[in-house]
Recover the amino acids of this structure.
């Protein structure tokens, strides 16, 4: 199962290649933010699906989404573990 998971941008890694370091449940990975309108900055929240930021969301929406995902139990845990073990930067 693939879920859209909220993550917080912690750094812009490569502005030309549209890459940002995003924290998802304590796991930090580079994510392509090129599908978003405009630049992202540390502190921004994005909705991530298969390595791409699909939408910019506010912190309240991110918190609510994380609570809902955590309530799903195993499916959410599997997504976070897949992210953790992906070996992506």
């Amino acid at each position: 199962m693939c879920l859209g998971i909220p993550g917080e941008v912690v750094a812009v890694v490569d502005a030309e290649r549209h890459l940002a370091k995003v924290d998802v449940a304590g796991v930090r990975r580079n994510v392509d933010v090129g599908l978003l309108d405009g630049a992202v900055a540390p502190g921004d929240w994005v909705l991530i699906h298969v390595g791409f930021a699909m939408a910019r969301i506010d912190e309240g929406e991110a918190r609510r989404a994380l609570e809902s995902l955590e309530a799903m139990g195993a499916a959410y845990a599997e997504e976070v573990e897949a992210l953790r073990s992906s070996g992506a930067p």
Remarks:
- The helical segments are 59-71, 74-85.
